[in-house]
Design goal:
Layout: H1 3-18, E1 23-28, E2 34-41, H2 43-48, H3 53-65, E3 67-74, E4 77-83, H4 93-97, E5 100-102, E6 108-110, E7 115-122, E8 127-129, E9 132-134, E10 137-141, H5 146-160, H6 174-204, H7 207-230, H8 237-270, H9 277-288, H10 292-310, H11 317-360
Antiparallel strand pairs: 1-10, 2-7, 3-4, 5-6, 8-9
Length: 376
């Protein structure tokens, strides 16, 4: 509630924040740095000349401050007309003191005889939010992401600044927008993963294969993390959007691999050629190795479409680069994952299925006995 306390707190926080690593500049608004000219009407003097307080105030408002006297209409536009003395007649206090006030008797009395002039310090402007007065401290950053900086700054300010009762600190600006976006992403990311899993289950009609693809997604994100690190990008909303898109692309490449593996496995099973681990390994080699070209084409077409974004310099390219970077790096690691790890996981799963089938299938034992006589 007290502007002087707000100004003092702003100056102290400015000094504390300026020493935090990553601060490019810090500036606290000078809440009480304005100069105000106060005119106190002397009632005993205006009574001598038969003036009323309102008459003196009208002169102050119109001659010095300016008053709207009419409006002018120019076509469809309407402009107010303000009346006051020219600047050269009111540009300093001595000139203002000589502003004349007309009395009922026709005399012209200088304003200095009717009012006392004084200059006082006051707020240059009063800002408020939620019916509470506020003071802003503007901070520019360099070489650090907003989330990490605000977390560190909160700890320093809480340790160094003791707030009086009734005063609070709110971190706003880009950090506030980032927090809102983070809350939205906390909902979007799980929903996206659930939708991907549901679509995979509808396609494969098998929860195990859908789980294999979903379990491979974290490994596919490794390439995106490394490229973000090499490009020195901070984690932002654009980067998170890129990782969400990467999850869909990684699931796509995993689906392509599993479709070919299932196709060869079913073909050999129908031909009765799936009885040993060697048969399973040969089927996986056929499905994974002999069809590398369509898998790489799936990855290459997406990469070819994204690479021009990484070299763009036009308006909006900074945001688009941060969206495309996770996908470019993640597709490379996803290709390696699809060609190497998924076939190995598929082999382990199918080997366990074959072993379970051999253990549960009924077996027929035939014992042949030689019943011929020794003499025959």
């Amino acid at each position: 509630p007290d502007l002087n306390v707000l100004s003092e707190l702003g100056s102290r926080i400015e000094a504390v924040v300026r020493d935090i690593p990553g601060t490019l500049s810090a500036y606290s608004e000078r809440v009480t740095g304005g100069n105000y000219l106060n005119l106190t009407i002397r009632r005993d003097q205006i009574a001598r000349y038969g003036l009323r307080v309102s008459e003196v105030q009208d002169v102050i408002m119109s001659a010095i401050g300016g008053m709207n006297v009419t409006y002018t209409v120019e076509g469809l536009e309407r402009y107010p007309v303000s009346l006051r003395y020219n600047r050269e007649l009111r540009d300093d206090i001595e000139r203002l003191k000589r502003v004349l006030v007309a009395t009922p008797m026709g005399a012209q009395v200088p304003l200095m005889q009717l009012a006392d002039f004084s200059i006082e310090k006051g707020p240059a402007g009063i800002k408020s939010e939620n019916s509470r007065r506020t003071a802003w401290i503007y901070v520019d950053l360099k070489g650090v992401d907003i989330g990490s900086y605000v977390k560190m700054a909160k700890e320093v300010v809480d340790r160094e600044i003791d707030l009086p009762a009734g005063y609070t600190i709110i971190w706003s600006g880009q950090f506030e927008y980032m927090e809102k976006a983070r809350k939205t992403l906390n909902v979007i990311v799980p929903v996206t993963l659930m939708v991907i899993f549901l679509l995979l289950y509808i396609h494969f009609r098998n929860a195990t294969e859908a789980t294999i693809v979903m379990a491979s997604l974290p490994f596919a994100l490794v390439g995106g993390v490394w490229l973000i690190y090499l490009l020195d990008y901070n984690i932002s909303v654009a980067v998170m959007v890129g990782f969400i898109a990467l999850a869909g692309l990684a699931a796509e490449t995993g689906v392509v691999m599993l479709v070919y593996l299932d196709e060869v496995f079913k073909k050999r099973s129908n031909q009765g050629m799936m009885n040993t681990n060697e048969d399973l390994q040969a089927a996986i080699m056929e499905g994974a190795v002999e069809r590398v070209r369509p898998k790489l084409m799936t990855v290459a077409t997406t990469l070819i479409g994204l690479l021009p974004v990484m070299w763009g310099t036009e308006t909006g390219s900074q945001v688009m680069k941060r969206i495309a970077a996770p996908m470019v790096g993640g597709l490379v690691s996803s290709a390696v994952l699809t060609l190497v790890i998924i076939p190995a996981v598929y082999f382990i799963w199918k080997r366990w299925q074959l072993r379970s089938r051999f253990l549960t299938e009924p077996r027929i034992s035939v014992e042949i006995e030689d019943v011929r006589d020794e003499g025959d």
